[in-house]
Write a structure and sequence with these properties.
The protein is α+β, with helices and mostly antiparallel strands. It contains 13 helices and 20 strands. 36% of the residues lie in helices and 24% in strands. α2 runs parallel beside α5, α3 runs parallel beside α9 and α9 packs antiparallel against α10. Bound molecules: flavin-adenine dinucleotide.
Length: 394
């Protein structure tokens, strides 16, 4: 268990440059990088770490590139992350096997705990099991109410970073409700210990069909991460997530995962959502809190890390002296760093709603593997640098 590095009373006694709410990949990296730039940073999470997270647990090339660029690539080797070599994508009619240029699978308990430790190592103070909410505004700082197990306190910061994941109540209370895609799906995942030998290390298995899709991948400790994006109506009709996920796996003609029925599912709110804004006065949103699309292309951690790294220098400047132009600056940096990279994911998400188009896509991928490679290479490209020097070094 990662212990708090500060008490709630001490956190409330001082004024912080930056309070980061949420210690997932976006928040942990934003906190680490801001602390490395010399800012006084308080990182707060409602969970105790290590904690599970609904996720397919695959890091793509962009995520690996960001970790490398900030000197953190060794954490994956230390955690025993599994290199990914291929994806096997199937629907009831066709199957395509695709070589993956680069990627790793690793459990979110291990990855997020390691990122958090690196933020603490860089000097960020950490307060777990504490839910944060925005309190009244003042002219030169933000008040943040901290709700712990036993008591509540108010902390102050010149800037707040909302890195609190999907359905970010922090941002939405400030800028209005996000726009949720009309036929958005729910995210679910379960960790399975008893795994048929068919499911090999280094391969991502993706079963698509009516009602959603399921991804299966072996983790560093041999457990199988089963993650799904499921239509809520189809899930109810099927009789629950285990039944719908099992029928998708079955229609891909893959062996059943027996421990799926005794595994506990964790769920998310509706996935695909775009907030009306990503910043407000003394408030920046990053990671899933800044908008999310479905997980089929496995890019969310990469977007979160890239956003966290890009936000840090701006948050540090804002923590020294706030200027209203920072709101537009973050929108512009976010667009170039993350939003422009989400186009391929949007296209795939739309295409997956049609069985005919999904079958056609799998057909093209199986007879022309180069087409799949091109798409994967595009999604793995390193991203734009706000320093104006072209791309980040990675
Ligand atoms: C089914 C599914 C499969 C996925 N598969 C992949 C994949 O294979 N590869 C990939 O790259 N991405 C994948 N993703 C996406 C990925 O999980 C997210 O994009 C990523 O976790 C976003 O990181 P984040 O730091 O923004 O938020 P999170 O990781 O969600 O972290 C947010 C943190 O904020 C904390 N928090 C929330 N509210 C508060 C509050 N009020 N106060 C204090 N703390 C708070 C939470 O406890 C949490 O720790 C998948 C997503 C889903 C749903």
């Amino acid at each position: 268990v990662i212990a708090p590095t500060i008490s709630m009373d001490d956190a409330a006694r001082r004024e912080w440059d930056i309070i980061v709410v949420g210690a997932g990949p976006a928040g942990a990296l934003a906190a680490r990088e801001s602390a490395r730039w010399g800012a006084a940073v308080l990182l707060v999470d409602r969970a105790q770490f290590p904690r599970p997270k609904v996720c397919g647990c695959c890091l793509n090339g962009r995520a690996l590139g960001v970790l490398k660029s900030v000197g953190l690539s060794s954490i994956l080797a230390d955690l025993g992350a599994v290199p990914l070599q291929r994806a096997c994508i199937s629907n009831p009619i066709r199957e395509a096997r695709v070589q993956i240029p680069v990627g790793m699978s690793v459990s979110r308990e291990a990855l997020d705990a390691a990122l958090l430790q690196s933020a603490i190592g860089a000097g960020a103070s950490f307060l777990p099991r504490t839910r944060a909410a925005l309190d009244r505004k003042s002219c030169d700082h933000r008040r943040v109410s901290l709700h712990g197990i036993e008591h509540t306190a108010i902390a102050r910061a010149r800037v707040v970073i909302a890195a609190n994941g999907l359905a970010s109540e922090l941002l939405e209370r400030e800028t209005g409700a996000a726009c949720v895609w009309p036929n958005a799906r729910l995210g679910l995942s379960a960790l399975c210990a008893r795994v048929p030998s068919f499911y090999r290390r280094g391969t991502i298995y993706l079963a698509c069909g009516p009602g959603g899709y399921v991804g299966l991948v072996r983790l560093e400790d041999e457990r199988l991460e089963v993650a799904a994006a499921l239509d809520p109506v189809a899930m109810r009709r099927a009789g629950g997530p285990t039944k719908l996920a099992s029928s998708l796996i079955d229609s891909a003609r893959w062996p059943p995962v027996p421990s799926l029925s005794d595994g506990r599912w964790h769920g998310t709110p509706l996935l695909t959502r775009i907030p009306t804004a990503r910043a407000a006065e003394r408030l920046f949103a990053v990671g899933d809190a800044a908008g999310y699309i479905e997980p089929f292309t496995g890019e969310g951690i990469g977007w979160a890390l890239a956003g966290g790294r890009a936000l840090a220098p701006l948050a540090v400047r804002a923590g020294k002296r706030w200027q209203p132009s920072f709101v537009h600056e973050w929108e512009a940096v976010y667009r170039k760093t993350v939003r422009d990279k989400q186009q391929a994911c949007w296209s795939v998400t739309r295409l997956l709603r049609s069985a005919v188009l999904t079958t056609a896509m799998l057909g093209v991928m199986s007879v022309m593997p180069a087409s799949a490679r091109l798409l994967l290479e595009r999604m793995n490209r390193p991203e734009w640098s706000p320093g104006g020097r072209g791309e980040w070094r990675s």
